[in-house]
Amino acid sequence: MKRNALIDIAKGIGIILVVLGHLDTNGQISREFIYSFHMPLFFFLSGIFAKTNLNFRQYLKKSFLSLYLPYFIFIII
């Protein structure tokens, strides 16, 4: 699959917004504006090209074991 330059540019902008959001400690309005969309944008654009050979059931099992199980163990502790 050929890379799409617009997707790469949008991801770059998303990364810059993440950094700016963390650097801006005084500007509450700009921080709220950036925080309203920068992470969903970045995750959406990154997820577009995610590839997996797993079916949905296998994907849920893998996600549970690698994400949710450690989360619940941490919460209990």
At a glance:
The chain is mainly α. The protein has helices spanning 5-23, 28-35, 38-47, 56-76. Helix 1 packs antiparallel against helix 2 (28-35) and helix 1 (5-23) packs antiparallel against helix 3.
What features would you describe in this structure?
- The protein is mainly alpha-helical.
- The chain has helices spanning 5-23, 28-35, 38-47, 56-76.
- Helix 1 (5-23) runs antiparallel to helix 2 and helix 1 runs antiparallel to helix 3 (38-47).
- The longest helix is centred in the C-terminal third of the chain and has 21 residues, at 56-76.
- The radius of gyration is 17 Å and the shape is flat.
- The termini are far apart.
- The mean pLDDT is 79.
The radius of gyration computed from the alpha-carbon positions, rounded to a whole number of angstroms, is 17 Å
Task: Provide the structure class.
Answer: mainly alpha
How does the major sheet shape up? Answer: none
Q: Assign an overall shape.
A: flat
Averaging pLDDT over every residue, what do you get? 79
Distance between the termini: 44 Å
Number of strands: 0
User: Helical content, roughly?
Assistant: over 70%
Topology (SSEs and partners):
Layout: H1 5-23, H2 28-35, H3 38-47, H4 56-76
Helix pairs in contact: 1-2, 1-3
List keywords for this structure.
single chain, mainly alpha, 4 helices, 75% helix
